[in-house]
Amino acid sequence: MLTLLMKLGLSEKEARVYLALLELAKDTAINIAAKAKMPRATVYVMLDKLIHSGLASQVTESGKTFFIAEDPHELDRLITTQINELEQRRTSLSDSIQQLIALYNRQQDKPAVRYYEGEEGLIALDSYRLNTGAVNDKSEVYAFSNFDALEDIFPNRRKKSVDDRVNRGVKSNVIYSRKEGPIPPKENKKLLREGCWVPESYMPFMGSVGVHPWGVKIYEFGGSKKRGILIEDDRIAEMVRSLFRLAWLGAEHINKNDARH
Fold first, then answer.
1. Domain boundaries along the sequence of the chain
2. Partners of 221 in the beta sheet?
3. pLDDT given for residue 95 in this prediction
4. CA distances to 105, 133, 138, 155, 234 from 112, in Å
5. What's the rounded Cα separation, in Å, for the pair 125 and 218?
6. In what side-by-side order are the strands of the sheet with 171-177?
7. 112-260 belongs to CATH 3.30.590.10
8. Mean predicted confidence (pLDDT) in 160-186
9. Exposed, middle or buried, 21 (CB in 10 Å: 0-12/13-18/19+)?
């Protein structure tokens, strides 16, 4: 019952006092405090809130103050009040939304840059904007990545990230290093990925750079702290994408030279 009352909007202390009052039906603050196992001063505050909410009332008899539990059907009225308040907030938002959008649009010409730190921070960076419609089936992502570092740091998260991308039908183009060498083309095809392997000496960094249609995600694992940077700007994304295409030509050249040896 305590959990139910809290879901209906009462605080834990309000719920405990209300339940105690329901069992006692009508009693003094001292006895209610004993029943609820709470300090009397706290109980007085909670009773005042319950009276204000219409869930309790008080009477004075022979100079003593008694508190009375109101019918639990009043809880339904409490929910109705909350619904009305939410509707009023919705109306207020509707009245102001265009002004807020105007303020937001003023900033659209400026890149948004965010910094993330620690494992949880990088997980947040990884999932950013994946469920907002910003990435669709026709989108492609581009990446420079040290696969060994990703596997060491985020083995489970990397698999989930790849599975999510494949389920959305998003193609990946990646220049990667990997101690075991190139990934078989059949595996890349299954994962909607076009990959170009290079030896780690050509990409001597512990991390990854992901280029999306709307921005760039940078992950860095080499220092004492794992960290990441998000640059949210489509023009910067296009610039890095152009650099990726140039790097791809270089990576293909490296592969051809390695094949000759």
1. 1-104, 112-260
2. none
3. 75
4. 13, 18, 24, 29, 11
5. 9
6. 112-117, 227-232, 215-220, 207-212, 140-146, 171-177, 193-197
7. no
8. 89
9. buried
Strands 227-232 and 112-117: antiparallel
Which CATH fold would you assign to the domain 1-104? Arc Repressor Mutant, subunit A (1.10.10)
**63 φ/ψ sector (left φ>0, alpha ψ -120 to 50, else beta):** left
Could you give the count of Cα atoms lying within 13 Å of 43 in the half-sphere of its Cβ? 22
In this predicted model, what pLDDT tens digit does every residue of 47-98 receive, in sequence order? 999 998 888 999 998 889 999 988 888 888 888 888 888 898 888 887 777 7
Better-scored residue on pLDDT, 210 or 128: 210
Note the pTM of the prediction, 2 decimals: 0.55
Q: What is the pLDDT of residue 79?
A: 85
Nearest partner of 251 among 206, 187, 200, judged by Cα = 200
pLDDT value at residue 260: 46
Using CA atoms, how far residue 203 sits from 40, 55, 177, 256, in Å, is: 67, 67, 7, 17
Q: Copy the structure tokens of residue 215.
A: 């921005």
Q: Are strands 193-197 and 171-177 parallel, antiparallel or unpaired?
A: parallel
Cβ atoms of 218 and 207 closer than 8 Å: yes
